[in-house]
TrEMBL record:
PANTHER family for this protein: AN1-TYPE ZINC FINGER PROTEIN, ZINC FINGER A20 AND AN1 DOMAIN-CONTAINING STRESS-ASSOCIATED PROTEIN 1
Record-linked SUPFAM superfamilies: AN1-like Zinc finger, Glucocorticoid receptor-like (DNA-binding domain)
Spans annotated as Disordered: 62-89
The protein, known as: Zinc finger protein
Provenance organism: Vigna unguiculata
AN1-type domain location: 84-130
A20-type domain ranges (all copies): 13-47
Free-text function comment from the UniProt entry: May be involved in environmental stress response.
Signal peptide: none
Compositional bias segments (type: Low complexity): 62-73
Keyword tags: Metal-binding, Zinc, Zinc-finger
Example GO biological process: proteasome-mediated ubiquitin-dependent protein catabolic process
Pfam families xrefs: zf-A20, zf-AN1
Amino acid sequence: MGSQQNYGASYPTSEPKLCANNCGFFGTPENGNFCSKCYKQLCVQVPPSAINSLLRLSAPPALPDAAKPSSSAEQSPPCAAEPSKPKNRCGCCNRKVGLTGFVCKCGTTFCGVHRYPEKHQCTYDFKTAGREAISKENPTIKGEKVQRF
């Protein structure tokens, strides 16, 4: 018990690096120092051969001009796009719902209190959807007229 070993000394410690696209998130070396979101955008908008050449560089540049969204008023980084509500929170009270969240037909997740359409001012038109479903399931069938002798 008299000797102490330093187990962490044999492994190099690396501090997280920011995304190469300067979006504010941390990048990983496997993705060429891009964050996961910027890397996915890069994969979608740039051909695979160009991605490999970008990842081989020691200091990868930002996304190419063709991959960046163009805006006449202001250039914003692709990771700072529109903020959206997380899917694990209630659309009304912002309470965490976890696995027990209820997804309404309007497309939003709600907690147990706000799961009913009357409780969250639902925009889905249930009457029209019901009428369309009935008309599809029960088509009008008309037989031929019987000719009298």
